[in-house]
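hey can u run this one w/ 5-phosphoarabinonic acid bound, need the structure tokens asap thx
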Amino acid sequence: MIKFDSTNAFLEEDIVSYQQQVNELHEAIVNKTGKGNDFLGWVDWSENYDKAEFEQIKKSAAYVRENCDVFIVCGIGGSYLGARAAIEMINGLYADKKPEVIFFGNTFSSTYVAQVLEYIKDKEICVNVISKSGTTTETALAFRLLKQFMEAKYGKEESSKRILATTDIEKGTLHDIAAKEGYQTFSIPSDIGGRYSIITAVGLLPIAVAGISIDDLMDGVKEAFVDFADADLTKNSAYAYAVARRILQNQGKDAEMFVSYDLNTSMLAEWWKQLFGESEGKEGKGILPCSGTFSTDLHSLGQFVQDGKKLLFETVVTFEKPIIDVVFPSDEDNADGMNYLAGKSLDWVNKMAMQGTLEAHVEEGNVPNLILTAPDMSAKSFGYLCYFYFRACAMTCYMIDVNPFNQPGVEVYKKNMFKLLGKN
Ligand code: PA5
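ok here u go:
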């Protein structure tokens, strides 16, 4: 389902020359024997997920859709990025869908927090608080404010129906609060880490609330699981992409720009940045993930890509079909001189911009470009793409002997912050 093209990447080594190493690491992934192997639950999740919980997610989503104008998703990092990426990519940015989904618990910004609380004051609200650890400060702080807001607005009993918690199945602060208050609870499996949890209740509940078919999404995950069972680099696009990244870094490219041509996929790029940045960037190793949404960012970052220091390669993620297309109209006066596009579709214009940019960056800028092509922006394609990236990420990390499933570097800021905040 995902086509991978490395013909514009100036690769100095053959991808297939890595086949033997990839075969060994593939075994470490599928047999769950590689580094961080207690977090490889996502590998066969499409076969093993809890079907009863999956049905409960759909039921709860239906309840939320009937009972609120605004659905607040309270979580940070892997506990919100995937859901936001999915909802924006699949529905678009201005879909006329109820309820409105607002992301909260992902910042200490007082302005943002105060404005959200003011905005929801007179609206019907449901909340999904999501935290695997249950102790993440941004989320816990925001949730206390939300809980007090909900109880003042609805009273304790009604609030407990309108608040849903997604957290560790057995333990933790949020788990205990949910049990005490009687919230409907969804579980995060202990062997699936935050940034791999989009395909669990973490992502699925908000996605279902947004009116998206989680059956279709899981079909995409399942299809990718089947497709990537074969490690053959001429067939396995996820592994071919993983290897191409390593070859490019060996050629001195220490940054990768995720390039898309649709504004509704900019959160997909944010999700990808977390997945690859937090998984790969450790022990002084890794490729810096950054992103550009073109053509918008061609009017800003484009200058650097074309003409600046040659430190990056681009991976263009393109979709054969947009959600909606627009035909450009003719104009009698043609005062703006735009009649040369009359009758053309906007998606065609966008694709021509992509083609022209590719030639400019590759041929004149000498910037290596990898291209990933997905058929459309459906829930199924999203599920497939997520799993594609999971496999690619695990493989590319294992190739440099990095554990893709921990994040020791994130603890350093927390330690300093807690000291300053006076936390015991
Ligand atoms: O990928 C990860 O594990 C992290 O980014 C977490 O998702 C993030 O820190 C939030 O953690 P939690 O769900 O425990 O609140």
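The chain has two domains: 3-31+219-398, 45-212. anyway lmk if its weird
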